[in-house]
Each structure stands twice: as C-alpha cells, then as structure tokens.
Design goal:
275 residues, alpha/beta, Rossmann fold, 2 domains, seven-stranded mixed sheet, 11 helices, globular
Length: 275
Amino acid sequence: MKKVAILGAGGKMGIRLSKNLAKTDFDVRHVEVAEPGVARLNAEVGATPVALDDAIKDAEVVILAIPDTVIGKVTQVLVPKLETGTLVVILDGAAPFAGHLPEREDITYFISHPCHPPIFNDETTEAGRKDYFGGIAAKQAVVNALMQGPEEHYALGDEIARVIYAPVSRTHRCTVEQMAYLEPGLSETVCASLLMVMRQAMDEVVKKGVSEECARDFLLGHMNILSAVIFNEIEGAFSDACNKAIEFGIPALMRDDWKQVFEREEILASVERIT
C-alpha cells in the first residue's frame, strides 16, 4: 500500500485529485487548511485533513496541489522535513523551471501536467463528452518530467499521474524546460490568447447585426472542420478563397516577430510573472 500525502487536497485542483486517489488502495493523507476546502473534502471525498507533519511521515509520495504562486514558500517549509527518497509531485512546470524548488539531492522532483481531453476524441458517453477538463470520464494525455531523482522513480511518478488524472490515454515524457514551452508558451500565451481573439471577433460580428446564436454556430462549426484539416485529423484542402484569406489574414492579425514568445528568455519571463 503506497503512502501518499496530498497538500491542498480540498482546493480546486486538489479535490479532483483527491476523488481519484480515493478510488485506489493507497494510504492517502489529506492536508487542507482553508475552511471551504476542508468542507469540500469532507462532503465530496469523506476525508478529514491531518496536520502536515502527520501526513508526510513515512510518505513515499507527496503531491503539491497548490497554486504556483505559493509553491516556493510552501516547499521551503516542506522539503527539509521530507524523508530521503520521497517523491514530490508538482502539477505544473512553471515553479520548477523558475527555480523555486529548494535544493536537496536525496529527494525526487517529478512534474506532471494534464493535456485535457482533446477536441477530436472517441467519447461515447454523455459524461465523457461533457468532461472538458478531464479527470472524470474523458480520456486525456499527460505530460511528465523527472526533474531530479533516480530513473526508477519515473515509473512511480507515471503511475501516480495515471491515477490522479484518470482516465489517461497515454503519457509523454519531456524535460522541465520543454514543459515550460508547452505551458505557458503554447497553451496559454498562444492558444488561449488566439481563442480569446476569436471570441472577440465573434462579438464584433454580433455588433454588425448577426444574432449571437448564428455567429456562435458558424464560428464553432468552422473551428471544427478547419482544425480537422490543419491538424491532419482528416484529409482535406482549403478552397482557394480560404487560402487567400489566410494569406492576407495572418499578416493583418499577427506581428512578424510573434514567434519570439518561444525564445527561452521570453518563456522564463512569462513563468516569472505566473509564479
């Protein structure tokens, strides 16, 4: 029976993980200090939180389900108390990449982050189709990085990842720096920003007199088929008119140097802002 401690167990992310951990035979110790989180933990998991020192005693795995902004402060207190060989799971690569984890060579740092259920999937149940975040009914991929620690600890970290983010379709291994290029770089700086622009564009069309329902149906439908072609989900080609619109549209919407957001210095600056 694996002994697992989870910090922030009743938080927005922690409660999701706590529910999945409850489905295992792990010896799970929950740490939660916020009253709403304690109430949520009691009601949704049927668990009572314990003190930090009690939770981490003999724990093989410690999961940090806490915000990026407090990772540095919490780990300064936590890490000196951990036993040699403890595997610490961090749920995002930002704080590790920014250097906010204390140095200690005899423990393992393992970062694991969900990809979330993909747009193109084979979900057949209503619960699966409506599980946009993941961790409930829809399959999702997961990205892992063994920041430091013995190679054999990767398998343990991967096992934990497959539990807390279940159901998992597959896992990908990369470095901590590569995780930073994925998020915030690819997923937030680029994808979230451009999706926000698309929503604002839809609102502009509505201002021109198109009904919101019509504009939404038109945009989301085209996002579906255009994405299927662009990401090689299906074989297809755009019309000459669409290709011409793209040719003129990208320069009108994007700065010539927009790919600088993926320069290492820019990624690090973004991570520093987050943490």
